[in-house]
Description:
Elements: H1 3-10, H2 16-39, H3 47-56, E1 64-66, E2 71-72, E3 75-76, H4 80-90, H5 94-101, H6 110-116, H7 131-140, E4 143-144, E5 147-151, H8 154-161, H9 166-179
Parallel strand pairs: 1-3
Antiparallel strand pairs: 1-2, 4-5
Helix pairs in contact: 2-3, 2-7, 3-5, 3-7, 4-5, 8-9
Amino acid sequence: MDYQAIIDNYYSEAEHDLRQLLLRHSRQVADRCLLIARQHPEFGIDTAFLEEAAMLHDIGIRWCHAPSIFCMGDEPYIRHGIVGGQLLRQQGLEQHARVCERHTGTGITAEQIEAQGLPLPPDGCYCPETLVEQIVCYADKFYSKSRPDRELTVAEAAQSLAKFGQEGVRKFLRWAEMFE
């Protein structure tokens, strides 16, 4: 599967800044994912799929509203995983779509959607389940699109999750023990 062709299909040269930011962030996440897979051969990860999923995890940002990172769409940013999942399903990439939908925060439960009135399908649970989903979700927390030159430490990434509740921090730190 050619993830570059899929990105090129949705991101034109006219959207140069957004496209470059997406590619840079996705490459950072993919490289960290691949490092985890190399350090843990016991996981038996399909590294080609892992790289593809990491490179496509944020494909939906173009349709979301986040002007500080060149996203001029109408959707709330929290929906970028859902939007990306829809795009990837149109390409016949169900497993990639699931990674895309499940990488926000450390996952979003149906209870969180309801309690916080999040603009996500209310019957959904968007928590990473498979090992690849977990690795991409974990790796993503080290790189912010708003500060692309910076790589967070485990402690800094955990701290950035604290505003969403301690359960997410605990999940992230469990992943750190598994993956680092």
